[in-house]
Design goal:
Layout lengths: L1 E2 L6 H9 L19 E6 L24 E8 L7 E5 H6 L3 H7 L3 E4 L6 H8 L18 E4 L1 E3 L6 E3 L6 E4 L4 H15 L5 E4 L6 E5 L3 E5 L8 E8 L6
Antiparallel strand pairs: 1-11, 2-13, 3-11, 3-13, 4-10, 4-12, 5-6, 5-9, 7-8
The chain binds succinic acid (SIN).
The site of succinic acid has 10 residues, from strand 3, strand 12 and strand 13.
Length: about 240
């Protein structure tokens, strides 16, 4: 859901999120001292990396990954910096019956190695938003989630794997899992499942993390892009 021309203080942004659940404090990105539930996604001219530049769902290594995120644009580049979304109901529905049968009951292990302290040290020099490089890896769980989740409210099924955090199927090695996982990950963001949001200052996007992948584009090297995100906690996928 997209809204234009909003003016939100951090408190109003958090209050909007709290209408849908409790708020997440990002386990790896350095948060605001006053309002740690507000995750600042900032890119200054000259920094080469963006937050969320690959197709992903947020924080799927958690046992109860977020229900969704609310991103608010404070300052946007004159062109570029769009966000892409991919519909995972469509990704699931377009699979063959044989593939759907094979995926029923399959589970994937999700971890947060893409934000490990070692990766953080390598990325931080080129990124305005900083990852914690002192984080204790043991602090963060690995979680096992169904490869196809079912929304209890509607019975709709969505594909639920992503390249950043799903590296193997449960009870299989990474080598064994790779071919099918790679197929599913490539399939999940075919252009026909996607839409693209063009931001303006004051735009708000609220996405459902359980049935969408998203990806931030990195195509505005000489401009700044400042966003605030509030992330609403969710439930264990079934
Ligand atoms: C993210 O939340 O992954 C970043 C999205 C964006 O900055 O467009």
């Amino acid at each position: 859901i997209f809204f234009r021309d909003q003016t939100l203080t951090e408190e109003q942004h958090m209050a909007f999120g709290q209408r849908f659940g409790t708020l997440n404090v990002h386990p790896r990105y350095v948060s605001l001292a006053d309002n740690p539930e507000v995750f600042q996604i900032r890119k200054d001219p000259g920094s080469s990396k963006v937050v969320g530049g690959i197709w992903h769902q947020d924080l799927t290594h958690l046992p109860e990954p977020p229900l969704g995120s609310i991103l608010y644009a404070l300052e946007t580049p004159p062109v570029g910096g769009d966000t892409l979304f991919a519909n995972q109901y469509m990704a699931y529905e377009s699979l063959s019956d044989g593939m759907k049968q094979m995926l029923a009951g399959l589970r994937a292990v999700h971890d947060n190695r893409i934000q490990s302290p070692k990766i953080a040290q390598a990325k931080n020099a080129d990124m305005t938003t900083k990852l914690r490089d002192d984080a204790d890896e043991a602090e963060e769980p690995e979680s096992v989630h169904p490869v196809v989740l079912t929304r209890p409210e509607t019975g709709l099924k969505a594909l639920y794997v992503n390249s950043g955090r799903s590296h193997r199927f449960a009870d299989m090695t990474e080598e064994e899992s790779r071919p099918l996982l790679d197929y599913l990950i490539e399939h999940s963001h075919k252009p026909e499942f996607t839409c693209r949001f063009r931001w303006r200052d004051g735009s708000v996007a609220f996405w459902d993390n359980r049935c969408l992948l998203h990806r931030a584009l990195n195509d505005y090297p000489n401009h700044k892009r400042y966003m605030n995100r509030v992330t609403v906690n969710g439930a264990r996928p079934v």
